[in-house]
Amino acid sequence: MNNVQEESLRDQKKNRRRLQILEIARGIIATKGLRSLKVRDVAEAAGCSVGSVYNEFGDFDGVILTVNRETVQALTARLRGVPAEDPVRQLYGLAETYLEFFAEHANLLRSLFEHRMEDDRPYPDDILQMVMDAFALMHPPLVRLLPDADDVKIALLSRTLFSAVHGIISLGLEERMVAVPPQMLRQQVEQFIDAHLVGLGIVPPR
Amino acid sequence: MNNVQEESLRDQKKNRRRLQILEIARGIIATKGLRSLKVRDVAEAAGCSVGSVYNEFGDFDGVILTVNRETVQALTARLRGVPAEDPVRQLYGLAETYLEFFAEHANLLRSLFEHRMEDDRPYPDDILQMVMDAFALMHPPLVRLLPDADDVKIALLSRTLFSAVHGIISLGLEERMVAVPPQMLRQQVEQFIDAHLVGLGIVPPR
DNA sequence: ATTCTTCTTGAACATTGTTCATTTTCGAGC
DNA sequence: GCTCGAAAATGAACAATGTTCAAGAAGAAT
């Protein structure tokens, strides 16, 4: 009995096309924003019919959600790369990395956080879970810094910090709103964390 | 010479309809979200043709932007109502009021912050200015608390704090993401400000 | 080679934003 | 009041875009 998954010619083509569609969709979202993503454009660029896009992803939301899924995966991978020796440094590193990633892929992250489903269908659970997992990357350093805090408190705190940093970055990069230059934004985020760590009693005031 | 603006019957009808259209659009956005707002629904509910909506607002974005304009005005009015005797209390009050307002009008605020214009037309300046004015409500208490800080520093700090609180609240109320119960969210915001004010040296650690 | 299954296609449809020639309404001058 | 010109309202037609599906093409199985 052969356990190796033989990939038929059919599956090969299918997979290749699937990846191609995603790449094209991601490119359009990243450069021109989610609102500019059109089925026909994607189909044409991928050299297939609109029907095939539907065949592969169910509906157009399916394409968007798959791109979003990959976005949060890429983000998490980047965040996992932050060194963990010093917990304080790690927290700064996480924020800084989030800022970098957001600045590089602003439209992709907006798609992740702002996309509303048609009707009121629920957002897929697995994506929500992945976002939570990203949140959770702050748990270990926080636990090391606040050994007396219980899990619930840590979970709350990490979510609060993540949300706060997310707010600073997403509004800061919103060119239409304020357009903070990235370098200044970085400083802004740093000072924010400075103050907050002092406030939590994690770091002595300078 | 008569300075009183005579309102012709024509203008009366026009104004009444304009208000009616806005009311209906606001209602739909508030209850079903921006994505569910359709010209034909609005026109039908207002008892007029779609053409009249365009006649009055130019395009559909015009309706949305007018609703957004009124949302930020209502928000600012609410924030202005926060007592200003004690600057620390005022900061807490501003955050708490923002939370209340956001919880009451989540979809309206999302429309304000997330709506993207067609093509890449710029977001109207006057709305951006109003949002900045809302930010600026934190200036006076911050100046009182940090008398040695210069204006730029104050402006940066107020924007940072606003954005951070906005992030905590908007993600916190995003039922699909995390769904923090409002009461817990309130506590979360409070603790956040606690820590930050301590970190800024404004309030002694407890 | 034949048959069966599955995928692909793209025309047709549905929904929704937008335009504009026509009609209606209003106000002004008589 | 009546008439006429300007302004507004209308809604059918158009345009853009998501969605479906019957028919055909392509691959797999025998």
Automatic annotation (TrEMBL), chains A, B:
Domain of life per record: Bacteria
One of the record's GO molecular function terms: transcription cis-regulatory region binding
Keyword tags: DNA-binding, Transcription, Transcription regulation
Keyword Transcription annotated: yes
InterPro entries documented for this protein: Homeodomain-like_sf, HTH-type_TetR-like_transc_reg, HTH_TetR, MT1864/Rv1816-like_C, Tet_transcr_reg_TetR-rel_C_sf
Pfam families: TetR_C_33 (PF13305), TetR_N (PF00440)
Organism: Bradyrhizobium shewense
Protein name: Transcriptional regulator, TetR family
Keyword hit for Glycoprotein: no
Residue ranges for the DNA-binding region feature of this UniProt entry: 38-57
Domain HTH tetR-type: 15-75
